[in-house]
Design goal:
The chain is an alpha+beta fold and 180 residues long. The protein has 2 domains: 3-107, Alpha-Beta Plaits (2-Layer Sandwich); 122-178, Roll (SH3 type barrels). The protein is 22% helix and 39% strand. It has helices at residues 3-8, 21-30, 72-75, 95-107, 173-178; strands at residues 9-16, 34-36, 39-45, 50-56, 61-67, 80-83, 85-86, 89-90, 122-125, 134-141, 145-152, 155-162, 166-168. The longest helix has 13 residues, at 95-107. It starts with a helix and ends with a helix.
């Protein structure tokens, strides 16, 4: 492919209808477009069996390389709702970011979606015996656990919990506790 053609074809993230990522990916390929749908495997339990199922690493998104000037075939693909951008301007994704995700997927190492939570950010505990409590992430301890400060009776209590049991929230934890 000539260099000029490569420069015009940039990667974009497409928002897609919920649970339509695989169908959109197939439709884009059928239309001759280069797509990228990173998947990960997870075990799911049904009442009679446990099965390994593939899910999108970025639920609700499919990546596609195309020339933005010729976006109609992309936007007319069934299941595609929009091209991701800022201030109504579609924003291409850098080749390095796409290459990094492709490398992770190709490595065969276990990967899964992970919530972005920063120290000082309000959080909500989603599961376990503390489910429903709000706090602030005060530090990360290793790669698998976090320490969270919970305000109870205007006192702080630090508790160490698994990182995958928290979700980021917005606003102050005190306001969230008061609203319960």
């Amino acid at each position: 492919m000539p260099d000029i053609l490569i420069q015009q074809h940039r990667w974009f993230a497409l928002t897609v209808k919920p649970r339509h990522e695989k169908a959109v990916s197939q439709s884009l390929r059928y239309r001759g477009l280069e797509d990228f749908l990173p998947l990960y495997s997870a075990r799911r339990r049904w009442s009679d069996r446990v099965k390994s199922v593939e899910f999108p690493l970025f639920p609700g998104y499919v990546f596609c390389r195309f020339d933005y000037e010729f976006r109609f075939p992309v936007l007319s693909t069934p299941g595609v709702t929009s091209i991701v951008g800022f201030a109504n301007v579609p924003t291409p994704i850098s080749e390095d970011e796409i290459a990094a995700v492709q490398t992770i997927v190709a490595s065969g190492l276990p990967a899964q979606p992970w919530p972005v939570v920063h120290v000082g950010q309000p959080i909500r505990i989603e599961c376990g015996s503390l489910a429903g409590l709000h706090g602030v992430l005060i530090r990360e301890k290793g790669s698998l656990r976090v320490v969270v400060s919970l305000e109870l009776l205007q006192r702080a209590v630090a508790v160490e919990i698994d990182r995958d049991s928290i979700r980021a929230t917005h606003g102050s934890p005190r306001a969230q506790i008061a609203s319960l």
